[in-house]
Amino acid sequence: GSPHAWFGPRGPACCLLPAMDDATGSILAARFMARETSEGYLRVLKQVLLRHGIPLSTYQDCHSALHRNDDTWSLEEELAGRRDPTQVGRVLEELGIQPIFAHSPQAKGRVERLHQTLQDRWIPELERLGIADPDTANELLDQRLIAEFNQRFALAPAETQRAFRDLPRGLDLDRVLSFRYHATVGNDNAVRLGGRIIDIPPGPRRRSYALAPVEVRQLLDGSWRIYKGDQ
Questions:
Q1: Where are the beta strands (DSSP E) in 83-212?
Q2: Which tens digits make up the pLDDT trace of 110-126?
C-alpha cells in the first residue's frame, strides 16, 4: 500500500493498493482506497483473479491485514497447533495461494520503487484531469492508466510458463472473497455478531436451527450470508 497525497494536499486521505507481476513488472490490478485495509486487499485480489486467474504465490509485507503480528493464541488455536490467519490470509489459503512475507523495506524495494514511479506519473495526470476523488480515479485506472503504464514499462518474462491457474468452474467468488466468522444460532433462530442480529428464516417444515454452528460471511458489497455447510 502507498498512502500518499494522491489528490494534492487538500484532497481526501488515500492509499493506492497495486498488485505487480514479478515476472514482467506489469501492474495486474490497482485500486485507490481511503486507507490500507483488508477490504482493499480483497478488492485488488478480486481484480487479479478475474483478469488473470489464481497466482501461485504472493510476495507481500507484514501489514496487519496480511500477517498476524500479535502474540496471542486462542484455546482453539492451541488445540489445533496453528494460529488462524488474517481474513486475507484465510482467502489465500482457500484459493491455494502461497504467501511469501517480506520482512524488511529492502526486501520489498521493487514495489516501493513502483510506488514512487506511480506517484511521479499519476499525480500530475490526476491533477491535469481535475480528478479529486478515489472512485473517479479508480475508473481512470481501469480505463487507461494501468494499460498505459504496462505498455511503457512492462518487460518480457524470463520464463514463458504461466504462473496463474484458471478459476475453477462454479467457484462462488463472492463467498470466497468475504469476511468469515463462526457463530452459533440462538434459541430465537437468530445469529448475534458484534451487536448485529441476523434472523434466519425457518427451514423445511418450520424447522429451527437453534444451537447449530454456522459460518457467517460478510461480502464485499456489505451484504451478509449465513451458511450451514453449503446451504
A1: 98-101, 164-165, 178-184, 190-193, 196-199
A2: 788 899 999 999 999 99
Q: In what order do the strands lie in the sheet with 178-184?
A: 178-184, 213-219, 224-227
Taking the CB of residue 75, how many other CB atoms lie within 10 A of it? 7
Question: Is it the case that residue 106 has pLDDT exceeding 70?
Answer: no
Largest CA distance in the chain: 64
The three grid cell numbers given for residue 41, joined into one nine-digit string:
486487499
Does the pLDDT of residue 105 top 70, yes or no? no
- Give me the mean pLDDT over the 99-104 stretch: 82
Q: Rounded to an integer, what distance in angstroms lies between the CA atom of residue 174 and that of residue 176? A: 6
The pLDDT tens digits for 159-206 are: 888 889 999 999 999 999 999 999 999 999 999 998 999 999 888 888
Q: CA 203 to CA 181: how far, in whole Å? A: 22
Backbone angles phi, psi at 143, to 5 degrees: -75, -45
Cα 169 to chain centroid distance, Å, stands at: 21
Q: Determine contact, residues 210/187, Cβ cutoff 8 Å.
A: yes
d(CA 6, CA 223): 30
Is residue 125 packed enough to be buried (19+ CB in 10 Å), middle (13-18) or exposed (0-12)? middle
**141-to-45, 47, 78, 83, 138 alpha-carbon distances in Å:** 15, 12, 44, 37, 5
pTM of the model: 0.90
